[in-house]
Amino acid sequence: MSINYPKGMKQLNTPLSQKKSIQYGKRGMKFEDMINESNKYYLAYNKAVIHKKPTPVQIVKVDYPKRSAAKITEAYFRQASTTDYNGVFKGHYIDFEAKETKNKTSFPLSNFHEHQIQHMLNCEKNGGLCFVLLWFSSLNKCYYLDFKYLYDFWTNKNQRKSILIKDLLEIGFECPVGYLPTIDYLIPLQKRIDC
Amino acid sequence: MSINYPKGMKQLNTPLSQKKSIQYGKRGMKFEDMINESNKYYLAYNKAVIHKKPTPVQIVKVDYPKRSAAKITEAYFRQASTTDYNGVFKGHYIDFEAKETKNKTSFPLSNFHEHQIQHMLNCEKNGGLCFVLLWFSSLNKCYYLDFKYLYDFWTNKNQRKSILIKDLLEIGFECPVGYLPTIDYLIPLQKRIDC
Fold first, then answer.
1. Least CB-CB distance to B89: which of A73, A94, A126?
2. Is the pTM of this model over 0.80?
3. What ipTM, to 2 d.p.?
4. What is B146-180 written as a DSSP string?
């Protein structure tokens, strides 16, 4: 289902002046929106219940104007202690982080944070199924990678600072990018469960 | 482990002037803090990974002052689409809502919102284990109730607007309130899994 752009073709590159509205994917969507759309599809068809967690915010001041909604006037971003997505698939707890790169051959490990790795490690220890979705925006491709492999890279067993696409093809799975769902990441997850 | 205060004893009542610092529980904690403490304990002892979700906020304006943290200067509370807590326990997806009342004999169903019921229904359909924790602040007692029973009450099969404590003693479970963990809600959950 995914489109293979010819090597070097900069189909999705956008001038700096349009940076704010960079668009990815088939339907002009950002990666996060593509995942949210997939989650809506999974929910509607009763395949899984997966939600993105809200951004953690420390609220300091709130105004309560008459006749209108409470307005937060001072707040700060807090460090998250988990990943962005979790939910349930066939009774299993699933938990994942979604990241993107403009690179064309490898995914930088620096995109991940210590707290995300630690959280997924904790979840796996308690029987959860954790993975990452890696979006290569220049290629319009999404790879699924089980946490255990990410953890091997992270703990530097492989002495590398990024994960090559050729490795992802071997130890990961290329998720179909299509219409319904936009990114079908339950396919590789089902394979893991079946193993 | 729980303390049974004599009927009518208003041990924990606080004058209006101190409303902001109403304190519950053995260690002067709010109910939410008691649950968060329990979750920390479960995490530390590798029994479960359960987190409270951040409050959903729609961020409108952010200032980026030099040499200090980004400051959110305009934001609004958004309606949540899920419950407050979820996580993993022995591979199972668990999901719950925690609510409190000052009542002494029954828990008002009006404390729950449609989106919370719908979310738990969706999760149960996908094999998740959903329940509610009901805190009776005047009694210092916490009851666990499986979602299926709450749903029966909610859909008004019982034609009532609240759940009586005597029903909770029959169809629910009184969680031990102690020190480590503060509220041991994994005990009834384990019973459900064992059934």
1. A126
2. yes
3. 0.83
4. EHHHHHHHHTTTT--SEEEHHHHHHHSEEEPB-SS
